[in-house]
Design brief:
By secondary structure, the chain is α+β, with helices and mostly antiparallel strands. 26% of the residues lie in helices and 23% in strands. The protein folds into two domains: 46-296, Distorted Sandwich (Beta-galactosidase, Chain A, domain 5), CATH 2.70.98.10; 298-762, Glycosyl hydrolase family fold (Up-down Bundle). It is globular, with a radius of gyration of 26 Å. Pfam families: Glyco_hydro_92, Glyco_hydro_92N.
Length: 763
């Protein structure tokens, strides 16, 4: 890691304090603080992020990564691997979802090695440089150095070869149907891959074009394990190409690569538009500048080097998914291949996110810091519905039958309530109503158990619908989001009334004998053999202690169910004080989410997964905001670090990172589809959020330190502020927020009901 850490120090300005206490006081190039290897030391049994070093630009259609895993393996790059098999164009949002439209390039020497194992080369992190905009590594077995830099739909490779009479570049479009054609007179290779992991896609091809700056010494193609020397074209289950070059010591072979989901011509157009005649260094500088501009929307100061690196490494992860699936044709029109019907259609399209994860903080973060990209995403959601008849809940791309909930409602509602305009809200309203009242074509689209839910007010435990309690709780919140959206766009009261009423359905699963949520049978009796520590059915990747807090929109109602504020706070406390016991019997083994909770030494608090991530902020609704301040800082300090093992569970498309970014600012969106952020306490002495409208939110906490994590007092624009929440609408006007921090909690501030955040019961 020495080389990486030295590279990250570029542009730092430190105070003159002791090295141990040095604080970063100014940021020149935020991209220099990002470690793309954060979270890569992971496995299916234990996730420290389950990330890969994504070399890309924000929300780019294509990402690139060194590939240590075998073809088609979800874990494309793992930190403990010692061989690289290729450099892969990827669209993978997570290892569990795997990939689509992937292909790889790999330089080799010493013979015509094209098989993924034969061509693999040893490498070391000591000879690896990983940044968001540039990747470099030395391939020891081939004595080749590879450099890579991206654009939205294209990339440049720079491969430095030794003196050799057998230098080659392998083009591997992977299996499940692929094609290559070498065009020697143009130093060009075209091809396509049809490989994908999820859903059922029509007319799916990722077309690619690769242009080299050196002539080919020889041309070969292969299919499976069979090499055809001299043949320039190949189609089959697993077709590929192998082109040779004359290389002297230090010879550089450059390659420009682009792709398209539409056609070869569009791939060529993407290449000409995004790279054209630009050299490698120009493309690299452009990507670096773009990252600095996007990351520079948030400027931090007065934190340790570790805190700054962790902050910008998390911010980097929030800027990838969902990624663009649309392209710009020769008429400068925005067009896309549709994952729903296979047609080429006008308008925006995105893919690569699971709303079960990202509705909580990732989308609210975009609405605050990068609303223009979410405006495109909302237009893309309208196209999803028009082309497929449903909104996706997990798109990778199109519809994937995984996870629960109807949380597209939250994603749509929060965007509009946070001020986004200029897209087809009427179509989105139609989509939300359709999804909320009907079972979809698969259990993860629409609402599985909708007839039961609409009649009984819950999805029964005993009707063979898995994760019934989790579905009920999320449907209730989603109904609230629909109510909020309908109210905001002026729908008649009688039309939206039922969604408001159904948003109280969470109460149907509260068992007062346990003070927790519990599965309920169709006849109204409770599920038998209830164990609040049992993970899984009727919950999703958690137990009752995790899901009982999933009442984002009506915490006051939950406080009342649990016996009032004192009992509520006591129950929150118990999450941290209980031992991390568990019952994994539903799964037949310990899943990684369980293991991550067990080893974290935070009791039953399972920050490595999404259902409980908002729970820390609920103390604000019951007169104990200082406990939120303590646990938010504790979680930031202990659960995150810009290292290969730096997350405490799956990063999940920016959600776990967005929790950190919000929490470092000092507030969090407990209830998306409302105007409010619930207070925690800021991490840095100063932070400036530069809004897209030109305004700034300046957060000052000059006395902030490791010990001074409690808010003594707070001012907004110079006026004393006693509430436990901030208004999105007011922040958009620009604001200066001053925190007085202390090592002792202020147990009188924020304890009156007038200070509490929004709850539907109080409406």
């Amino acid at each position: 890691m020495k080389k990486l850490i030295l590279g990250l120090c570029t542009g730092l300005m430190l105070t003159t304090a002791n090295a141990q206490d040095d604080l970063i006081t100014a940021i020149q190039n935020p991209v220099d603080y990002v470690n793309p290897l954060m979270g890569t030391d992971s496995s299916p049994a234990l996730s420290n992020g389950n990330t890969y070093p994504a070399v890309a630009v924000p929300w780019g259609m294509n990402l690139w990564t060194p590939q240590t895993g075998t073809m088609g393996h979800g874990w494309a790059y793992t930190y403990n691997a010692n061989k690289i098999r290729g450099f892969k164009q990827t669209h993978q949002p997570s290892p569990w979802m795997n990939d689509y439209g992937q292909f790889a390039l790999m330089p080799v020497t010493g013979g015509m090695k094209f098989n993924q194992d034969d061509r693999a080369s040893w490498f070391s992190h000591k000879a690896e440089e990983s940044t968001p905009y540039y990747y470099k590594v030395y391939l020891a077995d081939h004595d080749v150095t590879v450099e890579l830099t991206p654009t939205e739909r294209a990339a440049q490779f720079k491969m430095t070869f030794p003196k050799a009479d057998s230098s080659y570049v392998v083009i591997d479009p992977f299996d499940k149907g692929s094609y290559v054609k070498v065009i020697p007179e143009e130093n060009k290779i075209i091809g396509y891959t049809t490989k994908y992991a999820r859903g059922k896609l029509t007319n799916f091809k990722n077309y690619f074009v690769i242009k080299f700056d050196k002539p080919f010494k020889d041309v070969n193609t292969w299919e499976g394990d069979s090499l055809i020397v001299g043949q320039a074209e190949m189609e089959g289950n697993h077709a590929g190409a192998l082109v040779g070059f004359d290389t002297k010591d230090g010879a550089v072979v450059n390659a420009k690569v682009a792709s398209s989901f539409i056609s070869f011509d569009q791939a060529e157009l993407n290449l000409d538009r995004e790279i054209g005649d630009a050299d490698f260094e120009t493309t690299k500088q452009n990507a670096r500048d773009l990252w600095n501009e996007k990351l520079g929307r948030i400027d931090v100061g007065g934190g340790t080097i570790d805190q700054v690196r962790t902050f910008y490494s998390c911010l980097y992860r929030t800027l990838f998914f969902p990624n663009k699936l649309y392209e710009i044709n020769e008429k400068d029109e925005i067009v896309h291949w549709s994952p729903y019907n296979g047609e080429i259609l006008p308008g925006y399209m995105f893919a690569g996110t699971g709303f079960w994860d990202t509705f909580r903080a990732l989308y609210p973060f975009l609405n605050l810091a990068y609303p223009s990209i979410n405006k495109e995403m909302q237009a893309g959601l309208a196209n999803d519905f028009k082309e497929g008849g449903w909104l996706p809940e997990w798109s990778s791309p199109g519809y994937a039958n995984i996870m629960v909930g109807n949380n597209s409602a939250s994603v749509v509602a929060d965007a509009y309530i946070k001020g986004l305009r200029g897209y087809d809200t009427e179509t989105l309203w139609e989509a939300l109503v359709n999804g909320a009242n009907n079972e979809g074509p698969m259990s993860a689209v629409g609402r599985a158990g909708a007839p039961y839910y609409n009649e009984l007010g819950y999805v029964p435990y005993d009707v063979d619908i898995n994760e019934s309690a989790a579905r009920t709780l999320e449907y209730a919140y989603d109904d609230f989001a629909i109510y909020q959206f309908g109210k905001a766009i002026g729908k008649p009261k009688k039309e939206i009334k039922k969604y408001k009423e159904r948003s109280m359905n969470y109460k149907n699963l509260f068992d007062p004998s346990y003070g927790l949520m519990r599965g309920k049978n169709q006849d109204g009796s409770w599920q038998e053999d209830f164990n609040p520590f049992r993970w899984g059915n009727p919950f999703t990747e958690g137990n009752s202690w995790h899901y009982s807090w999933s009442v984002f929109h009506d915490v006051q109602g939950l406080v009342d169910l649990m016996g009032g504020e004192k009992d509520f706070v006591k129950k929150l406390d118990s999450v941290f004080s209980m031992p991390p016991i568990f019952d994994e019997s539903v799964y037949g083994g310990v899943i990684h989410e369980i293991r991550e909770m067990q080893i974290a030494d935070m009791g039953q608090y399972a920050h490595g997964n999404q259902p409980i991530q908002h729970m820390i902020y609920l103390y604000n609704y019951a007169g104990a905001p200082w406990k939120t301040q303590y646990w938010a800082r504790e979680t930031m300090d202990r659960m995150y670090m810009a290292t290969p093992d730096g997350y405490c569970g799956d990063e999940d498309n920016g959600q776990t990172s967005a929790w950190y970014v919000f929490s470092a600012m000092g507030f969090y969106p407990v209830a998306p589809a409302t105007d409010q952020y619930v207070l925690g306490a800021p991490l840095f002495k100063k932070m400036t959020l530069k809004l897209e409208n030109g305004k700034e939110v300046v957060i000052n906490a000059p006395d902030n330190s490791d010990k001074n994590r409690y808010i003594q007092s707070m001012k907004v624009d110079g006026k004393t502020y006693d509430k436990n929440w901030l208004s999105h609408k007011e922040l958009l006007k620009g604001a200066t927020i001053d925190f007085e921090m202390s090592d002792e909690p202020n147990k009188s501030r924020g304890t009156e009901k007038s200070a509490y955040p929004y709850s539907l019961s109080n409406e």
